[in-house]
Design goal:
CATH topology of the largest domain: Nucleotidyltransferase, domain 5
Shape: globular
Strand content: 15-25%
Number of domains: 2
Number of helices: 11
Strand order of the largest sheet: 3-2-1-4-5
Radius of gyration: 20 Å
Largest sheet: 5 strands, mixed
Order of helices and strands: EEEHHEHEHEEEHHHHEHEHH
Bound molecules: 5'-O-[(R)-(carboxyoxy)(hydroxy)phosphoryl]adenosine, zinc ion
Low-confidence stretches: 356-360
Number of strands: 10
Helix content: 40-55%
Structural class: alpha/beta
Distance between the termini: 31 Å
CATH class of the largest domain: Alpha Beta
Mean pLDDT: 94
Length: 360
């Protein structure tokens, strides 16, 4: 709830999508997307099999101004009509973040409007409020190319991290699996496409399954996949399809097990009788096999499963504007000195995950 509707411009440049959006938070707490522009840089990075930070930063410089112009035109608004300008301040690739932040600050200064520095993970975490009117508390599974986390969203700005990955993010694991099987980039959709043609008959490990804490690990799974692939060389299309199906099955099992573990922890903190909801966000949430596994565990445990539509699950600026609007409605305005942050955990007090190299 807010005393009046607020309209924000959001800017997202933390990775390889250049995005600008205009979103309105209505008095009744509902959201409305007035424009949502995303310019992917896939072609620029595909040849390298991953995002090249320097290329991404330069592309954001070229693509951001036209994206903002298009978003404002589609919304039919001028900067004077805005109540604030929000941009991703982290976590992400520092060059791109600086491009987005500097642009947002310049527009805010020029138009005399509040500036809001948004945590990209918080934006993913709150997007179910924009798409499905879902209010906290709920359990969040965030699975993208850069992040794999299980979090309790307690309120805007209040998060408890239950699990993270000890090594690769899940999207990264899909991308590496695709690369070692000779498939294209980004790997997730390619692996999914091939898996449909295959049988999940190859035995692969389920790392971390059964562990008490809701953490993840995917490095061992990737290595096991590599050995199984090497043992079958030269790979036929059917071999690749079977390897993809088996990999997806292992991932789905692990995620289901880890989500189940997090549900137990979430329920301990939830008042008895409160509705239980699980939100899945991030690019990997688009995976159908994973969706089936989440559906199963959600219905088994009495949860409502919310998966925002793909365009709002993957990186976008509507979620940045929405998170900014939530912060503005609470008077959480940022000053112009706010820096870009490569790392910015949502729950800085979370105990470190087991093992070295755990990501925040
Ligand atoms: O959220 P996102 O668009 O960007 C960030 O990483 O922030 O997620 C991209 C990741 C990539 O690793 C991509 O391979 C993965 O999501 N992905 C998928 C699918 N679609 C995208 N992984 C598995 N199955 C999919 N259908
Ligand atoms: Zn993201």
């Amino acid at each position: 709830m807010t005393d009046r509707a607020v309209t924000l411009l959001g800017i997202e440049t933390s990775c390889d999508e250049t995005a600008a959006a205009v979103v309105r938070l209505h008095e009744d707490g509902s959201g409305e997307i007035l424009a949502n522009i995303v310019r992917a840089q896939l072609d620029l990075h595909a040849a390298y099999g991953g995002v090249v930070p320097e290329i991404a930063a330069r592309a954001h410089v070229d693509l951001l101004d036209p994206s903002i112009k298009q978003a404002m035109e589609e919304a039919g608004l001028g900067y004077d009509n805005l109540d604030g300008i929000a941009a991703t301040a982290g976590p992400g690739l520092i060059g791109g973040l600086i491009v987005g932040l500097t642009t947002a600050k310049a527009i805010a200064l020029g138009a005399g409007k509040p500036f809001l520095a948004v945590n990209h993970l918080e934006a993913h975490a709150l997007s179910a409020g924009l798409t499905d009117d879902l209010a906290p508390p709920y359990l969040l599974l965030l699975v993208s190319g850069g992040h794999t986390q299980l979090l309790i969203v307690k309120d805007v700005g209040v998060y408890e991290r239950l699990g993270t990955t000890l090594d690769d993010a899940l999207g990264e694991a899909f991308d590496k699996a695709a690369k070692l099987l000779g498939l294209g980039y980004p790997g997730g959709p390619e692996v999914e496409r091939m898996a449909r043609l295959g049988r999940a008959t190859i035995k692969l490990p389920r790392p971390m399954a059964g562990r008490a804490e809701a953490h993840f690990s995917f490095a061992g799974l990737k290595t096991a996949l590599r050995y199984e692939a090497m043992a079958r060389e030269p790979l036929s299309d059917q071999d690749v399809a079977d390897l993809c199906a088996s990999f997806e099955d292992a991932v789905a099992d692990v995620v289901q097990d880890r989500v189940g573990r997090a549900m137990g922890q979430f329920e301990q903190r939830l008042p008895s009788g409160a509705p239980k909801a699980l939100v899945a966000a991030g690019g990997v949430a688009a995976n159908t096999r994973l969706r089936v596994a989440l559906d199963e565990i959600a219905s088994l445990r009495g949860y409502r499963l919310v998966v925002p539509p793909a365009a709002l699950c993957t990186d976008n600026a509507a979620m940045i504007a929405w998170a900014g609007a939530q912060r503005l409605a609470r008077g959480l305005i940022d000053d112009m000195g706010t820096p870009a942050r490569a790392r910015w955990p949502l729950d800085p007090d979370a105990p470190p995950a087991l093992g070295a190299g755990a990501k925040a």
